[in-house]
Amino acid sequence: MTHWWWLLITAALSFALTFGLRRYALARSLMDIPNARSSHTVPTPRGGGVAIVLVFLGITTLLALAGALGWSAWLAMVGAGGLVAVVGFLDDHNPIAARWRLLGHFAASGGALFLLGGMPSVLGASTGLSWLWALFGLFYLVWLLNLYNFMDGIDGIASLEAICVCVGACVLYWMMGDHALLLLPALLSASVLGFLVWNWPPAKIFMGDAGSGFLGLILGLLSIQAAWVNPNYFWAWVILLGVFIVDATFTLLRRLIRGDKVYQAHRSHAYQYASRRVGRHLPVTLVSGLITIGWLLPMAIWVTLFGLNPIVGALIAYIPLLLLAFRYQAGKLEVA
C-alpha cells in the first residue's frame, strides 16, 4: 500500500507542477507558434516536461536518502538526466547549435554509463570486448534521447509511450519475480501520468525538449540497469520501445540517404503522416499505446519468460512496425 501512495503522490505533484508551469508559460508568452513544420495549428504553451524532470528526480533523491536506491544509480539519473534536461530547456528558449547539444548528450550519456558500471554484454558471455559494448551503450543512449525528441510531435504520444513502456517493464519484472526493479519505472510512469492529463489531445501544454530528451535518456538508463540483472531485460526494453525506435530510425535513414539535413525540423515521421491522414492526433496516439501493450509486450514476455532468442524476438516484433513505416511513408520528402 505504501508504494501505491508514493505513486499517487508522484502523479499528483506532476499534475500540480504542470499546472503551474502552464500558467507561467502563458504569463511569459512562452508559446509554441505553429509553422510549416508543426503538427499543431493552435499556439500552445511549452516546457511542461520540466514537471516530469523535477518530480522524478525529487522522488528518486528521497529514495536515495531513504536507502531504497543506490547512490551511483541516483547520480546517473540526476546528473545525466539533469544535464540533458538543462540543455533541452535552454534550447527550448534559445536554439543551441546541434554540435553543442550533441556534446552535452554524449557527456551526459558517458557519465551515466560509467556510474552504472558500463554496458553489459547482452549477447551472452563477454569475450574481452567491454570497450565495444561501452561504445555501443554510449551511442544507444544518445540515439534514444534524440529519437524521443523526434517522436514528440503530436499531442500525448511521447507521454503515453513512456507510460506504456514502463508499465510493460513492470509487468515483466513482476512475472519474473525481480520486484526490486519495479520501483523506478513505476515512479517514472507516475511522473509522466500527471503531465499527460495536460498533454492529452488536444494538448494544453507541450513537453518540450527538456522533457522529451530526459525521458529518452532515463528509459535507456533503466534498460541498461536491468540488463545487469538479466541481459534479456535489455532486449525487452528495446522491443517495448519499438514504435519509437522503428519510426525514428527508418525516417532518419531515409532522410540521410536522400541527403537531407537531418538536424532540421520536419514532419515526415510515419506517426505525423498518419495523424494528418486521419485529421486528428488522438487516434494515432491511442494506437501507438495499443501496439506497445497489445503486441510488443507479449513479444517481450516471450523473450524474457519463455526463452525466445532475443534477436529473433526483436525482429519478429519489428516486422509489423516496419510495414507500418512503409505504409505511412516514413521519411518521404514533404511536399509544400
Structural overview:
The protein is mostly helical. The chain has 13 helices and two strands. The protein has helices spanning 2-27, 49-65, 71-93, 98-115, 130-150, 157-176, 183-199, 208-227, 231-240, 242-258, 270-278, 282-304, 310-327; strands at 31-32, 44-45. A two-stranded antiparallel ribbon has the order 1-2. The longest helix is centred in the N-terminal third of the chain and has 26 residues, at 2-27. It is globular and about 50 Å long. The termini are far apart.
Brief sketch in words of this structure:
The protein has 336 residues and is mainly α. The protein is 71% helix and 1% strand.
List the helices and strands and how they pair.
Blueprint: H1 2-27, E1 31-32, E2 44-45, H2 49-65, H3 71-93, H4 98-115, H5 130-150, H6 157-176, H7 183-199, H8 208-227, H9 231-240, H10 242-258, H11 270-278, H12 282-304, H13 310-327
Antiparallel strand pairs: 1-2
What proportion strand? Answer: under 5%
Tertiary shape: globular
- What about the largest sheet? 2 strands, antiparallel
Residues in helices, as a percent range: over 70%
Our measurement of the CA-to-CA distance between the termini, rounded to an integer number of angstroms, reads 55 Å
Number of extended strands: 2
Query: Which parts are unreliable, with pLDDT below 50 for 5 consecutive residues or more?
Result: none
Q: Could you state the order of secondary-structure elements as H and E?
A: HEEHHHHHHHHHHHH
Main sheet: strand order: 1-2
Question: What structural category characterises the helix and strand content?
Answer: mainly alpha
Task: Write down the overall mean pLDDT.
Answer: 92
| Gyration radius, in Å | 19 Å
